[in-house]
TrEMBL record, chain B:
The keyword Heme does not apply. One of its GO terms (cellular component) is plasma membrane. It is a multi-pass membrane protein. The keyword Transmembrane helix applies. It comes from the Bacteria. Keywords: Cell membrane, Membrane, Transmembrane, Transmembrane helix, Transport. This is ABC thiamine transporter, inner membrane subunit. Residues 51-255, 323-510 form the ABC transmembrane type-1 domain. The chain crosses the membrane at residues 12-35, 55-73, 85-110, 130-153, 189-211, 237-260, 281-306, 326-349, 361-380, 386-406, 447-469, 492-510. Its main location: membrane. InterPro entries: MetI-like, MetI-like_sf.
């Protein structure tokens, strides 16, 4: 009888696994980059959970959702981190998420937060980033952008949350005329990348004059590289706001660890890493405040955002409008 | 005689099983796709744009490749110089060059930070960009110009040298020769070459994935991938897959109808002397053409070596893991490909039917993405498709390399049976004994070549793996694509060199293995 021996071996393995439970978190590429928040947060969380926190990079934000739908309840993810408010409703409709269970979370968001499934972990404003030494007269509105001959890099709204943000930003500014605006902008778009990392990497390498990113992106160059040549173009139209969210996967077998992670997400151990690794505004400002350099960033006078169901209602049509206009 | 009949049925049986497997993978997955496609919404504006883009880029790529190939092929045909045969051999290299490696090479030459742009900047011009329509066409011409050149060159070499001798003694000018000898040959060769290249560009995925991608530069194959991975719209993916298959099948059918170049009658296979083309101007023109074509081909590959060698020492461990994974996939693919090809070839030879070969060729028209979509739809309800990423990649590549294996094996096997078939029948040799004693020693060359091709193609494949890939088990081409899109150019350069070396090495090992001590 070999079975008992194998069984004993399995029991042995299981007990080892128990000693070191693994919490699997699906997130986007740049989150787990060496210079991203992933490594810092992994260390901080593992120090208190006696577990193995494993980040799995699944492309850009919107790809996380497709991935989850492709996997369904079979997914290995315990927590999903890196969707945004624009995708919250679509994520809710998958019925793959469980309530986070935190009543009235303490947040420093510009808007009020009420969502029993998703918690925000950071936020920011979308903006086009340019190099001050190369672009003399940055556009101050979408109109000026389309009238200029500046080349831009944007992201695919179907795979990338900034890409989707831009689609909704243009929709918020132009409404019915959004399709016509995309047609005007068309010949300035160098390429549409799958994710934010690709587009920003290309911009840094000089492949275009501007890239769609965040008003907080220049802080990276200023603080990490001591380079003050990058700036965000301030648009009179207002800037679309992104709120990045995380949720606990309902099918998880690590419910307690997942809850612990969601709690941890809004503490200093997580939030203090955000400004200088993810280069976004923290959802809860850490005790030490925002790092030096953030005060130099452009703060939009008016913020635009579609919330939850509102974003979901126009998302597909807005994307289709962009695709149709961009193929001409 | 009972024995002989038994052997024939057995051959037919094994061949039929292998063939059924191939049909299941091509038409079976297509059926799964078709059922699923019913649930799709309509064909949107963007889908029409993808169809249009696919057709336009394939037409332009094929036309450019063939138009450029004519003067280059002529130059190769009428000049003799040291290194000529090496160059002609090099024309075959892009076939086993992994697409994503070539894309890396092209970016380092034609990208915004590439050497051409650097030169333009130094001269005070704007740098060029490789992304979008022209980048896709450029990459396709890079891959297919050598193929077209080889086809055209074969056409030229098929004109017996005696004809040119005769033409010279009749005092024909270059124009006369062109009219009486060259244009008739081109009229036969060019349409076939155009269609083959058109078909290859039609099913191109990795090039569009890496260099296109925006709504303006999306092929149908890429749209299948996007509907699948980005929109999770299996119905739309299936509908697009159906369109892709119809397109491929239609072109393949036309290609079958187009007459293959017929011979001019044979002559002595001697170097072609061209008394009409000895003027210094023509010599200089041909030299320039050959030099430019060589530069266009060699420069991107050289850049891979130049950029890659310094990066080799600091390669991330993920590249090594991915290399091992890809080698495993390549070996599995070789075994599968040969196990499918041999019985089909045996059956084709025994039954003297060309139908079997034609069905094997069906896979040229079938796109890996369509097969992949079908497999995903079939596996999804019962198991986690992502767990099958590597086996599916090996299987699909085995099937995709089948037409090439059959093309090498069927004529060779036909010859063997013609030479030794009666003797073997007389000795009552059948089954394993016949395979081992009669076939195997004489099939080593085509078998080695087929195995090498299957290994190299699956080593470098970036198609179906992109559909099935999970983040933690990439193959080497997928890892290279990820490094490339994350703009980690140093690591990408190293990975590109490793992939290039691995693909050439697996081809060489098998192909060489087939030649060592081979009787034939």
């Amino acid at each position: 009888m070999r079975t008992p021996i194998i069984a004993a071996g399995l029991v042995g393995l299981a007990s080892v696994a128990n000693a070191q439970d693994t919490l699997t978190v699906y997130t986007y590429d740049s989150f787990v980059a060496e210079w991203g928040p992933g490594p810092v947060i992994e260390k901080a969380f593992e120090a208190r959970c006696d577990c193995d926190l494993e980040f799995v990079a699944v492309g850009d934000g919107a790809e996380i959702l497709s991935r989850l739908r492709l996997e369904g309840a079979r997914t290995e993810a315990d927590v999903v981190l890196g969707l945004d408010e624009n995708l919250a409703e679509a994520a809710r409709e998958t019925a793959l998420f469980a309530p986070h269970g935190i009543e009235s979370p303490q947040l420093d968001l510009p808007i009020e937060w009420q969502d029993e499934l998703f918690l925000p972990f950071d936020w920011g404003y979308f903006a086009f980033i340019y190099d001050k030494t190369k672009v003399d007269n940055p556009p101050t509105s979408f109109e000026e952008l389309a009238d200029s001959d500046l080349s831009i890099l944007i992201q695919d709204p179907r795979s990338s949350t900034p890409g989707l943000g831009l689609i909704l930003w243009v929709k918020a500014v132009y409404g019915e005329e959004a399709g016509a605006y995309w047609e005007r902008l068309n010949d300035q778009i160098v390429t549409v990348t799958k994710g934010w990392s690709e587009a920003y990497g290309m911009f840094v390498e000089g492949e275009a004059d501007m890239v769609l990113s965040y008003t907080t992106s220049p802080a990276y160059h200023l603080i990490a590289e001591d380079d003050d040549t990058k700036a965000a173009a301030a648009f009179d139209d207002g800037h679309y706001m992104q709120i990045e969210i995380a949720g606990k996967v309902a099918s998880t077998e690590q419910g307690e660890l997942a809850d612990m992670f969601m709690d941890f997400m809004l503490t200093d151990g997580f939030q203090s890493a955000i400004p200088t690794t993810n280069w976004m505004y923290p959802a809860k400002i850490p005790t030490e405040g925002l790092p030096d350099g953030f005060e130099t960033l452009h703060e939009p006078e008016s913020a635009l955002i579609y919330l939850g169901a509102e974003a979901e209602a126009i998302r597909d049509d807005a994307i289709e409008e962009w695709r149709a206009a961009s193929t001409r | 005689m009972a024995r002989g009949i038994d052997a024939v049925t057995r051959t037919a049986g094994a061949g039929a099983i292998a063939l059924a497997l191939v049909l299941l993978l091509t038409l079976g997955t297509l059926a799964a796709v078709a059922v699923r496609a019913e649930s799709a919404g309509g064909f949107g504006v963007a889908d029409w744009a993808a169809l249009r883009f696919t057709l336009i880029q394939a037409t332009l790529s094929a036309a450019l490749s063939v138009v450029l190939a004519v003067p280059i092929g002529r130059a190769f045909a009428r000049r003799r110089f040291p290194g000529r045969s090496l160059l002609v051999m090099l024309l075959g290299a892009p076939f086993i060059l992994p697409v994503i490696v070539a894309v890396f090479g092209l970016i380092s030459v034609f990208g915004r930070s590439g050497i051409v742009s650097q030169a333009l900047l130094a001269l005070g011009f704007e740098p060029i960009s490789i992304y979008g329509f022209h980048g896709v066409v450029l990459a396709h011409v890079f891959f297919n110009l050598p193929l077209a050149t080889r086809l055209v060159l074969q056409g030229w070499l098929a004109i017996p040298a005696e004809r040119f001798r005769l033409a010279a003694s009749l005092g024909m000018t270059s124009r006369d020769i062109s009219r009486h000898l060259e244009r008739p040959m081109l009229r036969e060769v060019v349409p076939g070459a155009f269609l083959v290249i058109f078909l290859l560009c039609l099913t191109s995925f990795a090039v569009a994935l890496a260099l296109g991608g925006g709504p303006r530069a999306t092929t149908i194959e890429l749209a299948i991938y996007q509907a699948f991975r980005l929109d999770f719209d299996l119905g739309k993916a299936a509908l697009l897959a159906l369109v892709q298959f119809v397109l491929g099948a239609a072109v393949a059918l036309i290609a079958l109808k187009v007459a293959l170049p017929s011979g001019f009658g044979s002559g002595l296979d001697r170097a072609v002397m061209r008394w009409d083309a000895n003027s210094p101007v023509l010599r200089a023109l041909d030299a320039a053409l050959i030099a430019l074509a060589t530069l266009f081909l060699v420069l991107p590959m050289a850049m891979i070596a130049v950029d890659g060698i310094p990066a080799l020492t600091s390669l991330p461990p993920s590249v090594f893991a991915a290399t091992l994974r890809s080698l495993g996939v390549a070996m599995a693919s070789v075994v599968l490909s040969i196990s499918l090809a041999l019985p089909i070839a045996a059956w084709a030879v025994k039954s003297r039917s060309r139908l079997v070969e034609a069905i094997g060729t069906l896979t040229i028209a079938a796109s890996p993405l369509v097969i992949g979509t079908g497999l995903f739809i079939l596996i999804f309800p019962v198991a986690d498709p992502f767990a099958f990423a590597l086996p599916v990649t090996a299987l699909v590549n085995a099937v995709m390399s089948l037409p090439f294996a059959l093309r090498a094996l069927v004529p060779a096997l036909g010859q063997i049976e013609a030479d030794f078939g009666r003797l073997a029948d007389g000795l009552g040799m059948s089954g394993w004994a016949r395979f081992r004693l009669v076939w195997l020693p004489r099939l080593r060359r085509p078998l080695g070549f087929s195995a090498g091709l299957a290994a190299a193609l699956s080593m470098g494949d970036l198609g179906v793996i992109a559909l099935f890939a999970s983040p933690d088990t990439p193959t080497l081409p997928l890892q290279l694509y990820r490094l490339l899109s994350a703009y980690r150019m140093d690591d990408a350069a190293g990975a590109a060199l490793v992939l290039l070396a691995a693909s050439l090495a697996v081809f060489w090992v098998f192909d060489r293995g087939g030649r060592v001590n081979a009787d034939a």
